[in-house]
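Hi all, long-time lurker, first post. I run a small reading group and we've been trying to get comfortable going from sequence to structure in the token notation. Rather than ask abstract questions, I figured I'd post a concrete chain and ask someone more experienced to write out its structure so we can walk through it together at our next meeting. Sequence below, copied exactly:
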Amino acid sequence: MRLLFEPSTEEPHLEGTAEELYELVRMLRQGREGVYDNLTVARSEDEPYSTCLSQIVLRPVADQEVRIYVESGQNLVITGDVQNIAILADNLVDAVYMPVREHIHIDYFPGIDYISEDSFGLVVQRIENNGPQ
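-- Answer (accepted) --
Happy to help. Here is the structure in token form:
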């Protein structure tokens, strides 16, 4: 799994196989503080992203909407209460079952109550087992 980031867009791009994405879903559903560091930090030259992030950090916080942001230019941080993090996990399941090379956007939108208005967006793309497409 790779987690790419371009600071000017504030929208990280996560790509992984169905198995890798589901591993992340399981971590989110557990709702415990933790670090997902099974990320590849290599990137190809033709991508519009300047940074490859090295970890996904989960920090449950009581009574808060999900907030996604990048910390220290190295880590994607997800905070929020466990119920809202579970909703995020449920939405990520869609990426597990979508066709290879398809993607979804996780973004704040008025009327969506589980994600904070000041959260970064997140693009999630399913890739084949043999690498980026």
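A couple of things your group might point at:
The chain has a mean pLDDT of 89.
The longest strand covers residues 55-60.
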